[in-house]
Design a protein that fits this description.
It comes from Actinoallomurus oryzae. It contains 2 helices and no strands. The protein has helices at residues 2-20, 25-56. α1 (2-20) packs antiparallel against α2. The chain starts with a helix and ends with a helix.
């Protein structure tokens, strides 16, 4: 959970820096990509956890 929150903070910081600073639009794109990767990563972890609980029953 801490990794998820840390990556969310990094994504937000990169997004804000890319949006505010002129000429650093690529940081906004990187922030969005980090955010999406974080959502995919957490979704995979939750999916594995649920699947394992069902298989154990």
């Amino acid at each position: 959970m801490a990794l998820f929150l840390a990556l969310i903070l990094v994504a937000v910081a990169l997004g804000i820096a890319g949006w505010v600073v002129k000429g650093l639009f690529f940081l906004l794109i990187i922030g969005i990509l980090v955010f999406l990767a974080d959502l995919v990563f957490s979704g995979i972890r939750i999916g594995r956890r649920r699947g394992g609980a069902r298989a154990a029953r």
